[in-house]
Each structure stands twice: as C-alpha cells, then as structure tokens.
Amino acid sequence: MRSFFKPLCAVLVPFLLAGCAVNPATGDRQFTALMSPGQESSIGAQEHGKILQQFGGLVEDPALQSYVGGIGSRLVANTERPDVVYQFFVLDSPVINAFALPGGYVYVTRGLLAVAGSEAELAAVLAHEIGHITARHAAERYSHGVVTSLGAAILAAALDSKSAAQALGVGSDLYVSSYSRKQESQSDELGIRYLHRAGYDPAAMASFLTALGRTTAFENQESGNGGGESFSYFSTHPQTATRAAEAQAIAASYPPLAAPAGGDYLRHIDGLIYGDSPDQGFVRGTAFWHPGMGFTFSVPDGYVMANSPAQVLAKDKASGTVILFDSVANKQNLNAMTTGSFSGTINRIPVTVRLVAVEWKPGVFFRFQMAIPARAAGTVSEGLKRATYSLREMTAAERQDIRPHRLRLVTAKAGDSVTSLSAGQPYPSLKEQRFRALNNMAASENVVAGKTYKTVAD
Known about the structure:
Protein Transport Mog1p, Chain A; Membrane-bound Lytic Murein Transglycosylase D, Chain A; 6-stranded antiparallel beta sheet; 15 helices; 18 strands; globular
C-alpha cells in the first residue's frame, strides 16, 4: 500500500500546488488552474442563450433592465476583479431566483424583484452573485471536480476497482452540482462588503433574506406543503433564518453610513407582471389559459398547478396524481388523437402512466402525460378524463379578457389595515398572507399611514 500511495501523491500533489493561487477577494489559496479567467468568459457566453431559453427570455422593459444594470455597475466598481466584464439581466420568470455564470453574467428574475423591498435589498442580491464571481467559486468547484475524477481514475486503475472510482466520483458530483455552504456564506460576506463600499446599507442582505423566508412560508402554505423551509432560491444552502442572522452580525461590524444609497425602488417595479406572463400562459385556479396560442384547459379541484416556459405541471395533493402538459412536434406521424397506458414506478411508488396526445394544428401535438398512483381511487381517472376533454380554443372575448396580474403600489391612509389593502387582490384566498409576504411583514404587524406598499391587481 505504501509503495502505491507514494507515487500517487507524487503525481497529484505537485499538480495541485502549482495550480493554487491566492484569491484577492477572499485571501484564500484556491485551486482553479483548470478554468482560466478566459475560459470563464467563454463559458458564460456559451451558456447565456440557454439561460434565456430556459427562463422565458428577458423582461421587455429597457428602463428596468438599465436600472438593474446601473445598480450592478455601482457594485462591481468596488470589487477585487477588474478583469471581469459584468453584465446584468432581468429574466421574464415568476420563479424567485438569482444566479451568476462564470465570466460576469448575473441574472435576477422578475419574481425576485417582487420580493425585494428596496434598492438596497436588490443590490444585496446582485452583490451576493458578484461575490460568487470574484471568489471564482465556479472555477474552484470545476477544477476540484476534474482532479477528483482524475484521482479516482488513477486509484481505480491501480486497484482494478470500479467501486473505488465510484466512491471518489461522489466528490466530483458534489463540486459540480451546487455551491457548498461555505461558498454561499463566503458570497454573503463578500456581498455585504460590496454593499458597504458602494454606499448601501449592509443590513439589506439580512432584510432581504428575512423577506425571502416569509415568501417561502407563504408559498408553502399556498401549495399545501406546510410552513417548512424548502425554498428553491438556494436549496442546498444554509436555511434562510440562519443566513439572515449571520448576515446581520457581519453587517453590524461595518461603520454606519451617513447617507445610505438607494433610489425609489418601488416606482421601478410598479406595473411589473406578477406571476405568469402572456408569452407563457396563465394559471388561474384550476384552469390554464394561453391567449398567445389560443387554448385553455382545466384540471379537477384539489390540483395545484405550476407553469413554466416548456410545460404545465399539476399535482393532486390528496392522491399524488401528476399531470404534465406540453407540446411536441409530430415527428412520428401520429394520428389526430393518440392514447396509451403502461405501468411503471416513480420514486419507488407503483403508478399507471397514461398518455393522451391531441393534434392541435398540423405538425403540433398537445400532450397530457398522467401518472396515477396505484392507491388512487377510481374517481381520479374520471377527473383526468374530464381534464383531457376540457382542452379547447379560447374565444375572442376570452383572449381579450385574460390578462396578467401586475404589481401595484398603494399608500396606506389613516384607518387602513392589511385586510383593507389586500382585499382587492385577484385571488380567492390567502389575500392577507400574500400581502404580508410581498411587504416583508410579520404576522402581528399592521400597515402605517403614509407608507407605500406592494399589492397585486389585474
């Protein structure tokens, strides 16, 4: 054994040491040799188009795009990596998300803009993503992943063992699948540094994370998942409450600013589409409407629907039945209506999978793909049948009347309350809870006369 490990280290250790350098942002020695700054820029450029396609393109509002880019430019002027050309984009997606690609590509969704309550909070999000870039986290995890795989290959060859390769390969998966908790905490810390340098209140990082947690709780309540913290913004990161507390402690270590920066953020998002956009169709209760393509269908009561640029997903909270609706080109020369059924398993649960494909126009089929757990009652199948039969063209009046929801501003007057200000929102339930989440309000908090709040209207 000793004779084997000595040459293995002789191969890898000099290679690792030669590729380590001190990062000027973090002060840490990093192994990033397998992704140079030039390669980072190339990767970002290659992936940018894929990101736009995945998230429904950009919000078509040049003034908003310019506003977000201006905040980003103010932040990057105070970073340790002047070699990076940063670009900032607002994606036309209701999903609450923000992320960065190597090479300076930084993205926020309009769903996230609805959560932020001030320019400083939006700056905190951008600063966090800039921190990932200045810390070269993508280059670090990629380089570690390649070397881990290399070490696994050498060890497997020496031991003639596939299991050894598989065991070491887990390390590679961990590096390339998501940022580590350490990297997320480091980006929070760097983001707070950049906030303060740019003149923004460094406490905005903690206040945004608090708003994020409240939005999470509301979305879980709305979808029937309970009040647990399963937020998708950083699904593999420290819990939002923990991060908020840590961010607050870091911010407190900075000297106070005489006049913190920040413009009239709410004015910039007044009228912004909230939820689904016309280009991607709308979920309204148990119905889906797509005015652009001119069709609609509905699912049975009890199903929760989620829309994305590529598909509509509906799930029955009671039975676990899932409906996936999408469109596909008719490359197989299918008949005008095609059906099929087979048995399978999903997450180790026996299910019956049914397919109903309907020709919508020449060369294009709409598909209902349904997974029905074996334990589901017979009435579930009847409901699914009605869902497929409900697919139809929208009338001209429907195409005119179905419009997106939008963020609107309202200023509280004396005598107003959360109940009165939230009453006009176009939702059948949870109006007050949505209003509180939108405005980062605690359950016991009431509105203040003269203060402006976000709400949702048609």
